[in-house]
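Work package 3, deliverable 3.1, input record:
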Amino acid sequence: MQTPLPPKGTRDFYPEEMSFREHIFSSWEKTCQRYGFEKFDAPIFEHLDLYTKKSGEEIEKQLYTFEDKSNRKLSLRPEMTPSLARMVAAKGPALKKPVRWYSIPRLFRYEKMQKGRLREFFQLNVDILGVKEVTADAELIAVAIDTLRDLGLDNNDFSVHVSSRNLLEELFLQLSIPKESIKPLFLLLDKQQKLPKDVFKKELEIFLKDQRLATKVFDILNAQSFDEIVAINPSSPSVKDLQNLFTVMDHYGLADYVTFDIGIVRGLAYYTGIVFELMDKNRDLRAIAGGGRYDRLVSLYGGEDTPAAGFATGDVVLAELLKAKGIVPDQPSRSDIFIATFNRENYNQVVSLANALRQRGYSCEFPLRPIPIGKQMKLASAARSKVVIFTGGQEEKEDNIKIKDMRSGEEFLVSKDELYTKLADRLSNS
Amino acid sequence: MQTPLPPKGTRDFYPEEMSFREHIFSSWEKTCQRYGFEKFDAPIFEHLDLYTKKSGEEIEKQLYTFEDKSNRKLSLRPEMTPSLARMVAAKGPALKKPVRWYSIPRLFRYEKMQKGRLREFFQLNVDILGVKEVTADAELIAVAIDTLRDLGLDNNDFSVHVSSRNLLEELFLQLSIPKESIKPLFLLLDKQQKLPKDVFKKELEIFLKDQRLATKVFDILNAQSFDEIVAINPSSPSVKDLQNLFTVMDHYGLADYVTFDIGIVRGLAYYTGIVFELMDKNRDLRAIAGGGRYDRLVSLYGGEDTPAAGFATGDVVLAELLKAKGIVPDQPSRSDIFIATFNRENYNQVVSLANALRQRGYSCEFPLRPIPIGKQMKLASAARSKVVIFTGGQEEKEDNIKIKDMRSGEEFLVSKDELYTKLADRLSNS
């Protein structure tokens, strides 16, 4: 039999890839906890209508759907927000607001395979529910930035592009674009970055059926600064929100990261206010993270009206960026301590020593079968052990133990009495 | 719209349940790392034939199967071992042995709902591949025991029941039971614990078509001690393996946990040697963990012959046991520090302070909108914060800051200069 492969669009995580994944996850966790967010999770599949309710039947094309044996229509989750909104709706007023939740869901989208996209992937999701003010949006942008800073990236590597759907809507209404055209227009605008400028402008003309109007929309979308927009509409509440947001970001110490970019609309139809995307400075990857305000989703699932904002960042694009920057950490030790033996008859003694070390909290392994000392040393290297303790040798007769530091290559003897203190010294500064 | 429910047999993890799940997972992780195991993962769905190949078409009844849009037959994973064996087979000799891997997979089985069973659940899986000696089995049993000890359980709470399929097979062959009957007989024996003794004996008689033979098998299965079995067959290799296993467990300091129990066979047909189950002492729960040797699985998937052993332990039964014992930890703080304010105009100052605290690694939150001080204190309680820092009050005029320790109720003033040292003192011993 030929060895079967993992399904298309999925990944095996051998320990080396797994430790890179864990490096990213642990950075996400640490940052969210520092910001006072608590973790939640939901089932990995949901009733299909949870997704069609939010995104229309159209979404089914991208879903892994199936029926269970009682003919319930289910779908693997393509995103976390519907589950979050469902859970918040279910608890109603019993759930203390603001909700400050994060999750690291595994997600599934049946998509064409391309760079930065897989069918099974992970995201960090961070959400605040119960705060209508732009302060929540600012707090979320700060978390998003700090997850990347914690991984070693800074404002030479990425920036946050912020816009407001309300602001765009206001500007479009001023141009007398009918209200019902605005949602489809947003979906069109979301394609802007993927199209050459002239092609995009042509599509605008076709959509608006008015060349002059298309030019005006195009000019707004190409506004070079926030000031140009403020000048059009200085007293608008959306402009005020954005001004407040930029001021607060300054107090987070993050003003350098944030830039106004009216071209950001985010494809998903459910956003209602501020929207933002984190992008690499070279702009040769997909967005690293994206989010915004979605004030109407909880009530869509039968919950009480709950203002909400959140963002998501995926592991695939992020991993590409970290690799491109060369900031992938070394794979950690499988065992800090490897116990080798010169004596094939002392297995029980080795086990007792390992047990004593493990009880003290050290990670430790030893050969489970009799193999020559040369092979034992290869095994210690494969385990990326920091030190090797040699048992069953001549030194034991004088109550000494030989230790090799695998990082420096240095070998030394310690008396049996001082083994634990010497090990503690060696391993504490690593 | 009525708020939708999670699908049958699945769970929502609100932060409280999530922190209990994380408590269990982190104990699993810590123990495996201490024993020198490294983490891996695989896709959450696999090609269906990965499972039918190992367990027969019969298994499909228990699977969540579906077709993707290219008509690939896929299944959510019901267990991790097939993915593990596939990954080991794929790497062949390039993968250094022994493989010492663990994983915490999310798994899915379409089963009748009952106590200790859900359709979506988690397991810890720990495996050693490349070691044919019983020392690997002993190492795994030690890990299994220590995951439970790390959670606060001891030998008053559970014990490890060990047997050997080879030993049983030897004994049955001595009784002239034909070789081809032995696998089906194992499947029957696995039902023993679920049936009254006389019903089980009747089923044995029907299966063996021989009342005297059935009595002999029944007597073997009811042997009270390992010595009785040794007496039947003192020089058998399986007996030697078990004797070695018990000796090694003594050197792990775990002899008190391990008991010989010939009645353990484990339902799955692929086990080939030592098998074991961890059971609560009251025996009113399902097995907490179970495992054994499966030397032929890697070659079944086209890999080279690779001796292997492993065990799995699930979160559902374990959580029940911890709850029954009352050893569920308190939900941790969402934020160690809560910044309250008496002044609705100083939001930016609060953000700056939060930023400084977070940069120092503290977890910290503050009200994102103007609310009265009483509500702020309720929010601090909801966040289970350890201390509240008050800003915008009278004290600030004298360059002091008021702090409340929420655990003791104590309030005190510190000068602005000593804020960070005082906080470090307060929060280090908690």
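The domain at 337-428 of chain A is CATH 3.40.50.800 (Rossmann fold).
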